[in-house]
Amino acid sequence: MRVDSIGFMSTYHKHDVLTPAMIRPWLERCGYQPPLLVSDFRFGTAGGTHDVALAAFAHQPTDARSACMAVVSANHEPAQTVLSYRELGAPVLFVCRDGELQWWSQRADTLKYEATIPLSNLPGFFHTHQQDFAPQAVYRAKTWGRLEQEYQLTFVDAGLMPVIEASIGRALSQLVERVVDEVTRILTPLLITEELGPRLLQSIFWILAAKILKDKNVPTFDSLDLSDLNEVFSRVAAHYGASSKPNFHTRHGREERAALAAVSQMFTQFSPLTHVTTESLAYVYENTLISKQTRANLAIHSTPAYLVDYIVWRLAPWIEEIPAEDRHVFEPACGHAGFLVSAMRLLKELLPISQTGQASRRYLRERLHGIEIDAFALEIARLSMTLADIPNPDHWDLRPVDMFRSDTLEQRANESMILLANPPFNNFTRAERAEYKQESYAHAHRSKAAEMLYRTLPHLRPGAVFGVVVPQGFLHSKDAATLRAFIAREFELGEICLFPDKVFTFSEAESAILLGRKIDPFRKATVSVRYRRVREHDIDRFKQSYVATTEQWVPQTRFVTKADANMAVPDLDEIWAWCQYLPKCYEIAHIGKGLEYKNKAVLPANAQTISPHPFPGAVRGFANPRKDLQIHGQPPEVWMSLDPRVISHRRTGATVGVPQALLNYGRVSRSPWYLKAIIDREGHAVTTRFLTLRPSSAAYPLEFLWALCNSPFANAYVYSHTMKHDILVGMIREMPIPRTSASEIQRIVDVVLAYYKAVTSDTS
């Protein structure tokens, strides 16, 4: 082996033993320098502790998100060795084996062997790949590559990072769950009062925070003894800039200390958490630390990391146009601060290279602002932001505020140029509205999401940008019509993207994102809106590569000119635009919904509603259109009460003896075939799970309505106009009807009768 004048190995002999240390100079040439090129990097997984001979990171903090490359040795099967380092998060892994260098790439669902490089070819190999292997090239391929093709690299799977962060989050969640179970075992549930419970949870989390900061070698934590609880809480409080810390001067102080000592021991024994990211903490918060009651009370639905990054990255070109000194970011209802963390990373990338150290630390803390009503969520937020800015201490502008009981929304919006939010999706309850009104905080909207936007968007300055997650109903509800009209007039809309249910772990709400920029009279605005829709079967693909099911460009004037500024644009929009002058379904049929019974809690004593057996006053009816129902058949018959005392809404389902076509209210499939219509000639009573269609004249027989509702046309219409579980009466009423002559209708009726005759004879 010969070493050149600047210390790099340029010639090798076949008897040389290849070690990870020999690869260090080549990685340095690619741009990795200490402290981002780490020898003997240790990290832990559920399977134990792993030592990486050489790990290369794009930037601080050195974690699974910034990890780019790893170099290890293997004496046995290299594929198993590579898999064991998966949770490091490095997409590129080099294995020194048998005097050669093997190049492997980690994928979201597997790993890929790329090449074997003999010792003699190392100089040429790293020279050829020097630019592709550069820290920013690999990092951007790993992150931005999911959105922008220009950053993609063939050996970097952009879908890897979300998978790894979720895996780390699951392992961390399991650890926290074991810890909480141990505390409960020691104290017994009887001792954990409403006052003690939150304090214990805070204490557990502070010990976890100390463990993470210690493992990441943050100054003042690297020598910390986790068993010294007083010192743990003192250092965490100092790092957070907190004015108070957990104490044991309570009735059960001795028991608390014993329980927390056990917590400390469990965390100490756990593998190093050096690779943990803020997104992994978000997983813990979402899946472990929020009680069901808290989630319901505060309508918490934590924003998935992939959606946070998508919104921030989409806004990045606009944010870059904002002067650096004006890039103030505001996240109301910040939860674990997912948007603030993502915005922090972007602001760091946009800072000039010369602005580092204390200048960068001060810059970020002056420009990132969050408010949150849930005190424990703020604990997560503080640690999340601290981990994203290691080794700097906390001191972030995170405040406990009820955003609907103050003027903070208006003030912060006026001071900020970047608004990022995932507000509560629920409506104000009657009690909340009365309470807020009594305190002089009356609200203009029933929806909390609409109210938050109503109190922020008008106060943004020209050129300010916003990215928000909203319930999908915001795009078309009457409650938000005036607000949508304001947005359409005053903002340049960059994108509207619709998502199915199941995007949020503990919510089935269908959501949408809106990206916009306040119109600046001195800047030319775009005139078209990117309109995307992600269907359920494509949500995993969107998570990995941000590919939508459908995408189109819509003139923004479409929203301005509509009376209600409706922002819901259906798939196959050109077809429905062409059909707008056709007759509507309500013109040929009376369309309604089945009856609804009162809640069991308010039913009269011994009252019956539905039974498989006859009971006094009951009539024959249908209660549920089972998914295995055939369109030529009928659901199982039941007996239903029409007693007004048990019915909350009669609707059309309580009218019996009228022939009708019945349509399922809930979709029968998650495929485009949503509808199953049946013919009910006797006119049964039906529950709210059915829609009723009754011909308005003899010109449109039941057979025609049946054929229409089961047709590809009707299914395409419903599929295009909704992502909901349910098929709304209003939607069916507005469905266009192809113009048909009397003779054409008769032909359809004849075909339907022939179909019924054929299937009846086949089953007889």
Tell me what you see in this structure.
The protein is of the alpha/beta class and 764 residues long. The chain contains 25 helices and 27 strands. Helix 6 packs across helix 7, helix 6 (196-215) packs parallel to helix 8 (253-269) and helix 11 packs parallel to helix 12 (338-350). The chain is globular and about 90 Å long. The N and C termini lie far apart (88 Å). The model is unreliable at 1-9 and 294-300 (pLDDT under 50).
List keywords for this structure.
single chain, 764 residues, alpha/beta, tt1808, chain A, Rossmann fold, globular, disordered N terminus
Number of strands: 27
Question: What is the number of independent domains?
Answer: 4
Strand content: 15-25%
Strand order of the largest sheet: 11-10-9-12-13-15-14-16-17
Poorly predicted runs of 5 or more residues:
1-9, 294-300
How does the SSE layout of this entry go?
Blueprint: E1 2-3, E2 9-11, H1 24-30, E3 37-45, E4 48-57, E5 67-73, H2 78-84, E6 92-97, E7 100-106, E8 111-118, H3 122-128, H4 135-142, H5 160-187, H6 196-215, H7 229-240, H8 253-269, H9 278-289, H10 292-298, H11 305-321, E9 329-331, H12 338-350, H13 357-367, E10 368-372, H14 375-387, E11 397-400, H15 408-415, E12 418-421, H16 430-438, H17 448-454, E13 465-471, H18 481-490, E14 491-499, E15 511-518, E16 528-533, H19 539-545, E17 550-555, H20 557-561, H21 573-578, E18 589-593, E19 596-597, E20 610-611, E21 618-622, E22 638-641, E23 647-649, E24 660-664, E25 677-680, E26 685-686, E27 690-695, H22 702-709, H23 712-721, H24 729-733, H25 742-763
Parallel strand pairs: 5-6, 9-10, 9-12, 10-11, 12-13, 14-16, 21-26
Antiparallel strand pairs: 1-2, 3-4, 4-5, 6-7, 7-8, 13-15, 14-15, 16-17, 18-27, 19-23, 20-22, 21-22, 24-25, 24-27
